[in-house]
Design goal:
There is one protein chain. Strands 1-2-3-4 form a 4-stranded antiparallel β-sheet, with no helix packed on it. It has about 425 residues and is α+β, with helices and mostly antiparallel strands. The chain contains 9 helices and 4 strands. Helices cover about 65% and strands about 15% of the residues. It has a single domain, classed as Outer membrane efflux proteins (OEP), CATH 1.20.1600. The N and C termini lie close together (about 10 Å). Helix 2 runs antiparallel to helix 3.
């Protein structure tokens, strides 16, 4: 399977994305929570009690008393509607900003998944390439080792030649062991995205050596810069976080402002006190209440100052995120622009390294070169193969990361990259 097929499975199984989906759903509730403070508030209260009291009468005829045992109850409907409550209004706008923050965070996680899939996929393939390169190097060093040993037996070689070849062989063996560990780790990371712990390298489609390179649209960096500033989801979520902090300052500052509330109540009570014994009252009330805070012990001012410092922190964090995003954008843009030239240069270097190995072997037989020259040529060939493989994967990953930094990465981009991988018939 190719990278896009892995991505399609990861959409339903990657725990990071699934967690982000739930976080977004939770964040959307902030909109309703904030709006609730602006809507009517309807309450109903009911109470019923058993009363046991003694009433003493003082009069000209003397003192007398009466024991009363009676039931009392009260029933109240109350409706309140804020007319002016700036704290509630700021809370509503804050809830909207928090919901938008959740949207942008999810958008970032969706785009990040595309990057993670291709990154882990290419890491696994590169580790497999490293294994193949190490195996080829070991075979070449083993052949050189046997040749040097035979020459030593014939009295034409030296023990140093044998030890040099053996040392290079052991080094290649160590690199192969490391590559196998890297492959295991990369496959586990890739498998974790799709809940497939037993993923094998044979399940992955290898990269086509002559894959078509991608043209940059737009071509100039300034256009990419503008795209990133406008569309990067991390910057967008940072702007929403800044808005949340700004509205929190306003919400706290509203503690100095009056609140105006319209209210209506309907109340029925019976024998709710000694003065209303055996009496029932039905009362309907409509009115306006004005509440003006005068002094709260300094809590409002302190909360406002605290929120202001948090706002300043959010401003600095957004500025830092913008700088790091643009640095990453430039890095990936340069990698895409120079990537094609690097691939061509490494391709020529590989041809030269292969020719160098053959010519050096012939020169050793002719007495013009020594054994160490052959080993160095083999090492250079292995290094060139490794660098070419790394450059191929880096180019594809840079193209994806460039769109991610610009905030324009979509499934279609990974689908285009997917075409560069060869599937078995």
């Amino acid at each position: 399977m190719g990278p896009f097929q892995v991505y399609e499975q990861a959409l339903h199984k990657d725990p990071v994305l699934l967690g982000a989906l739930k976080a977004r759903e939770a964040g959307q509730e902030n909109r309703a929570i904030g709006r609730a403070g602006l809507l009517p508030n309807l309450n109903y209260n009911y109470n019923k009690g058993r009363n046991d009291s003694t009433v003493t009468y003082l009069g000209d005829a003397g003192r007398s008393s009466e024991d009363r045992r009676y039931d009392s109850y009260g029933s109240t409907f109350s409706l309140q509607q804020p007319l002016f409550d700036y704290a509630a209004y700021a809370s509503y706008r804050k809830g909207v900003a928090q919901a938008l923050y959740a949207d942008e965070t999810l958008r970032d996680k969706r785009q990040e998944l595309l990057v993670r899939v291709l990154s882990h996929y290419t890491q696994a393939l590169f580790a497999q390439d490293q294994i193949a390169i190490s195996v080829a190097s070991k075979q070449a060093y083993e052949q050189q080792f046997r040749q040097n040993r035979e020459l030593f037996r014939q009295g034409e070689g030296t023990r140093t030649d044998i030890l040099e070849a053996q040392a290079r062989y052991e080094l290649a063996d160590a690199e192969q062991i490391q590559a196998r560990d890297d492959l295991d780790a990369a496959l586990r990371e890739l498998g974790a995205l799709i809940d497939e712990p037993a993923l094998r390298i044979e399940d992955l489609a290898p990269l086509h050596a002559g894959f078509a390179q991608f043209a940059l649209q737009p071509a100039g960096y300034q256009a990419w810069h503008e795209l990133a500033v406008a569309n990067n989801p991390q910057l967008a979520s940072g702007r929403q976080a800044l808005e949340v902090a700004r509205l929190e300052v306003q919400r706290n500052r509203a503690g100095h402002l009056p609140r105006v509330t319209a209210y209506a109540t309907s109340r029925r009570v019976q024998s709710d006190s000694g003065n209303t014994y055996d009496q029932r009252y039905d009362t309907n009330t409509v009115g306006i209440e004005v509440s003006m805070p005068l002094f709260a012990g300094g809590a409002v001012s302190a909360s406002t100052r605290q929120a202001s410092r948090t706002l300043e922190q959010a401003e600095y964090e957004l500025d830092g995120q913008t700088r790091s995003t643009l640095i990453e954008l430039r890095r990936q843009y340069n990698a895409c622009v120079s990537g094609a030239a690097r691939l061509r240069a490494y391709g020529r270097a590989l041809s030269s390294a292969q020719a160098l190995v053959e010519s050096t072997r012939q020169s050793v037989l002719g007495g013009e070169r020594v054994n160490l020259d052959v080993l160095n040529a083999e090492q250079q060939l292995a290094t060139t193969r490794r660098d070419l493989a790394q450059a191929r994967y880096d180019y594809l990953l840079a193209w994806i990361k460039l769109h991610y930094a610009a905030g324009t990465l979509r499934e279609e981009h990974l689908s285009r990259v997917d075409e560069a991988f060869v599937r078995a018939d």
